[in-house]
Amino acid sequence: xxxxxxxxxxxxxxxxxxxxxxxxxxxxxxxxxxxxxxxxxxxxxxxxxxxxxxxxxxxxxxxxxxxxxxxxxxxxxxxxxxxxxxxxxxxxxxxxxxxxxxxxxxxxxxxxxxxxxxxxxxxxxxxxxxxxxxxxxxxxxxxxxxxxxxxxxxxxxxxxxxxxxxxxxxxxxxxxxxxxxxxxxxxxxxxxxxxxxxxxxxxxxxxxxxxxxxxxxx
Amino acid sequence: xxxxxxxxxxxxxxxxxxxxxxxxxxxxxxxxxxxxxxxxxxxxxxxxxxxxxxxxxxxxxxxxxxxxxxxxxxxxxxxxxxxxxxxxxxxxxxxxxxxxxxxxxxxxxxxxxxxxxxxxxxxxxxxxxxxxxxxxxxxxxxxxxxxxxxxxxxxxxxxxxxxxxxxxxxxxxxxxxxxxxxxxxxxxxxxxxxxxxxxxxxxxxxxxxxxxxxxxxx
Lengths: 218, 218
Hints:
Largest interface: A-B, 69 and 70 residues
Distance between the termini of chain A: 49 Å
Helix content of chain A: 40-55%
Strand content of chain A: 15-25%
Order of helices and strands of chain A: HEHHEHEHEEEHEHEEH
Number of strands of chain A: 9
Oligomer: homodimer
Largest sheet of chain A: 7 strands, mixed
Strand order of the largest sheet of chain A: 5-6-4-3-7-8-9
């Protein structure tokens, strides 16, 4: 996963928009379109056209041609390469409850280069069951199995009280990137990549926007 | 939800950190601590101390005192007020499948000022069941019930193909803020607040960080 040959200094915002371009271009391709302009992409995705052109310049090997625009297939291939959608990376999921199950079922992570190879839980009722095609193992085996499977990405979907212990065991097993859905700050070595999904933070941002809109209408 | 009397121009980043301060301060309070310094908060949450001081200055009515620091209880109260955790806002959830159920069970949204009063689905197997204490209604009733319940926030956890229709019906029912978990860009009037949770975007960011770390070690 990720294009190791050439790591450009690309902003998080640009990287975050690439999956949306990818989905959109796949739709256009399915609809039979061969070329597309950055203006059309910007309009359909409600983005700024200058921003779209800058984003595409970062990932695209060929510039769009005046009037003709970009080849849809080339752009899809460029995003595939940039985001590493071509080389699928193995991951483990820790926590096979409601959120964990939902993540396993989420709209095909495999299309995004992520292959969940095993799940872990402490609940005897869940151990040895199968969720979304993935077998649930005893969390006591975590470090050992992660090392044996040579997995680089760990997804944490356990209650917050258990998250740090799980993170430590993942790192002990050789994981180098953690996707953390527990609402807690993890203490980790600096050479471990972390992405936190804090639902309370998202909700706070939405609520503030709502308050601003309602206030402006007073 | 939200402090309508006084809408300050506060950055998304600051607002996004407030729930973490809140959780941390509640823990300190439970541990019997009465006062706390911004330096201690910064250290424990692995944040920059200057940033923490700036964040707290935005929401706090009283400045921290040199040497003594902040009163823990006052700070919690200030964040409660700022984020509207005191006045709980009603919300509906559309999509009662895996992700929807997980969201209903997520670590007590009620503590964050969000009260999910009803869920909706199109699946006859789910309609009239109860998930996490919330009744699931027929999605055909969506606009009508949202209007009757006077709900301001709609949470979308349906497959992407259904998301725009659901969003339109929520707006028709009077919803003013949409929390969108479907991986699709919604077309909405500008006076509707939206927060998108795009798992593919998050994963792309994590993968790039991982690639950078692995590359730097070559």
